[in-house]
Amino acid sequence: MPIRFGVDANQFSLRKRTDGQILAEFQHQESFERVPLSSLQLYELEILAQYALHRAFEPANASVRSQLPPQSVTAAQTA
User: Fold this and answer.
1) Which has the closest alpha carbon to 11: 53, 54, 30?
2) Across the strands, what pairs with 16?
3) CA-closest candidate to residue 55, choices 64, 45, 46, 47
4) Which of 12, 7, 39 is nearest to 27 (CA)?
5) What is the pLDDT of residues 36-77, one digit of tens each?
């Protein structure tokens, strides 16, 4: 079952083929493009979608908390 976003003339969908390959399908007016996604690209898309949803529905005064242990955050800040 594809996931669709946008109006009829502009759509983006994700489709899983029977062999397990994930395809991103883009449609703009009469133009259509199908792009296979690697596991890494699909994971990146999932992270971006989670971030966008979090930003869209978080309270205005909330801050984004890191999922990393405090030692990793400190090491990344000093690097």
Assistant:
1) 30
2) 22
3) 64
4) 12
5) 999 899 899 889 888 988 888 887 765 656 555 665 545 444
